[in-house]
Amino acid sequence: MPSWRTHHAARIYSGEGTTEARDVGIIADQAKMRRDPQPVRAEDETIVELRLLTARRADLVHDRTRSYNRFRATLLEYFPALGAS
Known about the structure:
This protein is mainly alpha-helical.
């Protein structure tokens, strides 16, 4: 999940749209430029919160995909010609 920094940093990179590969590249590039890296401790409260947020995001993405697929299936029941395109 790209952070707000990645989102803003993405403006300086060429290309349109977003992909996981592009986001990973931007994050890696930004990490190389940082001068103040901090060690990450497993018991850190921030890590726990990030894990909860990423798990929640994964659930939301899954729900969105399921809703999209259900909607598409319903549309195809009523308008089968849509499946041809």
